[in-house]
Amino acid sequence: MSIRFTAKAHRGMVALTVAAGLALGVAGCGGGGDDGKKPKASSSAPTNRGSDPSTQEGETDGPLAEMKGSDGLLLRITSAERDSGGFLTVNGSLVNDGDKSVTVPSQVRGDETEIVRHGRSLGGATLVDSKSKKRYYVLRDTDGRPLTTTGFSTLKSGESLAVFMQFPAPPADTPEVVFQLPTFASATLQISG
Fold this sequence. Notes:
Blueprint: H1 3-30, E1 65-68, E2 73-82, E3 87-96, E4 102-103, H2 113-116, E5 126-129, E6 134-137, E7 154-155, E8 160-168, E9 176-180, E10 187-190
Antiparallel strand pairs: 1-2, 2-3, 3-8, 4-7, 5-6, 5-9, 9-10
Region (Disordered): 31-67
Signal peptide: 1-20
Protein name: Secreted protein
């Protein structure tokens, strides 16, 4: 066999493989086409399902917790989600509920030297697992920066800032934790995920 014949055969195999892959992709994405007909209802399915539980039932539109801080600051926690990677992420918003601009107190970053060095953050946040009798601190990256919202200082009246904090996840059998942040009241959070 010559090199020329081998190269032609190789190009032919590549073209055949690409064509087969495209054909499978088109067939997989095709979906049954919409011919304007609606699917027929099954005679065994009830017509009025009433209030069957759904995946979102039980979830509220309101926050998990609202904690008052100094000078009219309010921290609204909207979620505390455990993920498969072993982390628990707390999301929410920091709101200036007062009638004048407020500087977010530096105490919210905590007093650990490593965190203080990186400026304003919510690095002082902790979770307390009463069941396991453990306290969890905000995680840090390899440079010591807290895995939380950073770089904020002043909030105008009525202004809101989306915030997050990431912690090591408590054991899977822990359904709730107590969230603490310096200068704010503490609150119990239900963990999802």
